[in-house]
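The instructor's notes for this session suggest beginning with a concrete chain rather than abstract definitions. Hand out the sequence below and ask the class to guess, before any prediction is shown, which regions might be ordered.
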Amino acid sequence: MGALFSKTDELKDTLIKNLVLTAEEWDALRTKAEKANADLEETLIKDGYLKQRDLMDLYINRFKRKPLSRIILDHGWLDSSHHSTLLKKFQNDEKGLLAELIRENILTHEQAARVLAEKYELPYTDLTDFQFDVTCFPEISLEVMESYNFIPLKKLDEGYSLVIDDPADVVKIDNIKTLLGEVVHLRVGSSARIKEIIEKNRGARGVLTEIAEDFQLQIIREEGEGEEEKIVSVDELD
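After discussion, reveal the predicted structure:
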């Protein structure tokens, strides 16, 4: 299994605080693991101090946030044998774990989004039948949405409600906040569906622009003789 605690001192403090073992037992166990060149967490389980699920519970209580693998197990979307194999393969790589589960058709894109929403305690938005009108958000370009893979859900009195695909990417979220210059209220949605919605509205925006340009030329022709030409911008027609 993959190590849940990145620092040995964190694991020691958590185990002693939760009365799993004493300081003397910890020292003996650590010496044993070092001599055998074994993982400390695996040694704890092998020697009967903990079960794998107990170790996860300690991790959750320590950091107040479930690992993705535990959330997936709790939903019954992954069996325990497959779970152990994947943990070894994707140690400390939750993004890689989700990608593999989607690739193997164990999780759908929507289930992966639900897992992320639950972990980061954000609301999940089902985008299956979502109809997004890009003209409702002229302040946010499709290029920006595409670059950061998000869509605006609604304009609020203060800022925007946004649907994002990866709440763990704090750099991306900070960049979105900076670009918009507004308060953002985050929700989580399917990454694949967000991309589909943006692409669909890119095509619709192109058609709208062509219609507006044709209409503009028609006005110029009709008013061109003896009158001041009036040019209507695309923005006026949106």
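Then share the key points. Residues 216 and 232 are 6 Å apart (CA to CA). The first strand starts at residue 150 and ends at 155.
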